[in-house]
Structures are given as structure tokens and as C-alpha cells.
Design brief:
This protein is mainly alpha-helical. The chain is about 70% helix and about 0% strand. It has one domain. The chain has helices spanning about 1-25, 40-55, 85-95, 100-120, 125-135, 135-145, 150-170, 170-190, 190-215, 220, and strands at about 65, 75. A hairpin with a 6-residue loop joins strand 1 and strand 2.
Length: about 220
């Protein structure tokens, strides 16, 4: 039995190791202590400075308004006291605590690999698909300019979709659990634009699955 479990898990272990090695090789300067100069992050640091100074004298609580951007704006999009405890644990596990930007590519690879498995794609094909998704040109571009929350959200998109596919595939409990965990992690990244795009995709998929269930009179499954 142990040998059987080991044999079944070996391709997935190989996939994780492959994603880890490729991500670290691609981002090897980070291993020497170098960081990317991201202008959006620099602007963000300037925008939240006022809120950080406020939190230092108010028990770590951030203000609900800042005058540091435009004519003033709510601080929720840029700085707030979050309670993302469980999503934070999920994120730390999936990224293995890797330094940025290596963790972006590793996370995107892992999440797309989940989607490939949900579609019952062979592991080796899933590995290549995951690497193609993770190292798409657009991802590297937004990381360089500092769109970090956007990249994290994009990385989580295929994992959330994988959970939904499992529900459609009658694997209700595991599908619901994975959808909840991945969706909570994605939402905690605080990038509503990408979440909105994913909801459109899930909505379209749901319509087609609903039509198929109705045609096959699978009322219980549809419910």
C-alpha cells in the first residue's frame, strides 16, 4: 500500500520540485540578496506612510481615510488591519515561504497544475502547461512594475477554477473545500479586478454545465 501511494504521488512530487527549481533559476539574483526596483511599490510605500505613522500611535490600527492620495480616499485599498489568518496560512504553504519574485512563478505553476489535474490531464502535460501559464510574458512585466497583488490573484485563478470543476465533476466535498480555501486566499490579495474576471469565467462555465444537467435530467447534481 505504501509503495502504491508513493508511486502515485511521485509525479506530483516531481512537478513541485520542477516548479521550485525553474522558479529559483529564473529568479536567481534574489538568492544573492538582490531585489527588483518596482516603481508601483515605491509609490505605494509613499501612499501608506501616513497611515503607518498613525497606526504606531493607535495600537496598530490603521485609519479609514488618508490624505496621501488624490484629494483623499479610503485606506482599505492600500492599507488596513486585516484578519486573513487562514488565507494567510494557505498562502504561506503554497509559496513555501519563497522570496519574491520567485514565489510568484512557483505559486502560479502550482495553482495551474491543480487545474490540470482537475481536468484529468496527464501530470507531464500539466507540468508544461503550468510552466507556460506561470512564465507568460505578461506576468513578468507586471511583477517588474510592482503589480504584486494582481500577480498573486492571477496565480490563484486556475486553483479556484479547479475547485469549481471538481464540484461540477461530483466531487462535492473536496471541490467545496478547495474552492473555499483558494477563493479566500485570492480575495485576501485585495485585487477585485482579477476576481471579477474569474467570476465571469465561472459564470459562463456554470451556464454550460447547467444546460448539460438539464438536458440529461440530472436535477440532483444540478442542485
Amino acid at each position: 500500500m505504501v509503495r502504491s501511494v508513493f508511486k502515485k504521488s511521485l509525479p506530483h512530487v516531481f512537478a513541485v520540485v520542477t516548479f521550485l527549481i525553474v522558479s529559483l533559476i529564473y529568479c536567481h539574483p534574489v538568492l544573492t540578496g538582490k531585489v527588483i526596483l518596482q516603481h508601483d511599490i515605491t509609490h505605494w510605500e509613499g501612499a501608506v506612510e501616513q497611515s503607518i505613522e498613525y497606526s504606531k500611535t493607535h495600537d496598530g490600527k490603521y485609519p479609514l481615510w488618508t490624505n496621501a492620495l488624490f484629494s483623499g480616499m479610503p485606506t482599505f485599498p492600500i492599507a488596513y488591519s486585516s484578519n486573513n489568518f487562514i488565507p494567510g496560512i494557505v498562502h504561506n504553504i503554497l509559496t513555501l515561504g519563497l522570496p519574491k519574485p520567485a514565489q510568484f512563478f512557483f505559486l502560479a505553476s502550482i495553482c495551474f497544475y491543480f487545474l490540470a489535474l482537475a481536468f484529468r490531464v496527464r501530470p507531464i502535460v500539466g507540468i508544461f502547461g503550468a510552466l507556460a501559464f506561470s512564465f507568460a510574458t505578461y506576468n513578468a512585466v507586471i511583477i517588474v512594475v510592482g503589480h504584486e497583488t494582481k500577480m498573486w490573484s492571477i496565480a490563484y485563478m486556475p486553483a479556484v477554477l479547479a475547485g469549481v470543476i471538481l464540484i461540477f465533476d461530483r466531487k462535492y466535498w473536496i471541490g467545496a473545500i478547495l474552492t473555499t480555501l483558494f477563493a479566500s486566499a485570492m480575495i485576501s490579495m485585495n485585487h477585485p479586478q482579477i476576481t471579477y474576471y474569474l467570476l465571469i469565467v465561472i459564470g459562463i462555465l456554470s451556464i454550460f454545465f447547467a444546460i448539460r444537467c438539464i438536458r440529461n435530467k440530472e436535477w440532483k447534481h444540478l442542485l
